[in-house]
Specification:
257 residues, alpha/beta, Conserved hypothetical protein from pyrococcus furiosus pfu- 392566-001, ParB domain, 47% helix, two-stranded antiparallel sheet
Length: 257
């Protein structure tokens, strides 16, 4: 059916908290070019209106463009596994921020799933391990989750950070990762090193530290560039294999320059 945008209802729980502006602009331009939404939305009858289960972003773009009607696949009430549709559709379309997905899963868990993770996994038709990984993100350190939400660290780095037992080391490593970039492997090495330290009063560390004193910097967290001696733009740093004699010659040349 072709349905007017005003007759469509937003998903009860939206998996996506925000829309990437560039992707949304591209979709709007496509709609203007063809004069229609090319792929139908998936909706379910709800009274005299229709609840969106797949196509939330298409509906939003169509309203921005001023489209009169949208093509829809219409299902009778209660016949669509709505949350499963949203979860899988977002996985194969515009990448859903894993932090957004964690928020979405928690809403479902605390609502219609009554805190039953297996029930949630069945609802969204994802493996329990996948669901548990997403929930662990939002139940971990709030500062780590915030960094993940804004995209300054990856999900792998966030998972490793949440495994660092010492809050001080965790904050230090998070700061380094957010400011200069960090691979999952490097964060794993830091996590293993930090957790191997003896515990003092139940907290990993060599000795108790005053609250206002930052923890020691992670090993090799701020290497300097061989040529400019700057420790900025850590994400651009690369491992350099060189003879010691060549390195000394480069140092001498740099000193003369």
């Amino acid at each position: 059916m072709e349905i007017a945008p005003e007759l469509l209802l937003e998903p009860l729980i939206s998996a996506r908290q925000t829309f990437a502006q560039e992707k949304l602009d591209e979709l709007c331009e496509s709609i203007r070019t063809f004069g229609r939404v090319l792929e139908p939305l998936l909706v379910e009858v709800e009274g005299d209106r229709y609840r969106i289960h797949a196509g939330h972003r298409r509906w939003h773009a169509a309203k921005l463009v001023g489209l009169a009607v949208l093509p829809c696949m219409v299902y009778e009430a209660g016949t669509v596994p709505g949350e499963a549709v949203k979860s899988h559709e977002n996985a194969i379309r515009e990448e859903l921020n894993c932090a957004e997905e964690a928020v979405y899963f928690r809403q479902l868990l605390e609502g219609q799933c009554e805190n039953d993770v297996d029930r949630l996994a069945a609802l969204v038709k994802q493996k329990p391990h996948y669901v548990q990984q997403r929930l662990a993100l939002i139940l971990g350190d709030p500062r780590v989750f915030e960094a993940l939400q804004v995209g300054v660290i990856s999900i792998g780095v966030a998972q490793e950070l949440n495994l660092v037992r010492s809050p001080g080391y965790r904050l230090q490593y998070l700061t380094v990762a957010a400011q200069g970039g960090c691979s999952v492997r490097q964060m794993r090495d830091w996590r293993i090193a930090a957790n191997a330290l003896p515990e003092v009063n139940g907290v990993a560390g060599a000795a108790p530290m005053p609250e206002n004193q930052p923890p020691p910097a992670p090993p090799n967290s701020h290497p300097c560039c061989l040529f400019c001696n700057s420790d900025e733009d850590q994400h651009e740093m690369a491992v350099l294999f060189a003879h010691r004699s060549c390195m000394r010659a480069a140092e001498r040349q740099r000193g003369q320059g």
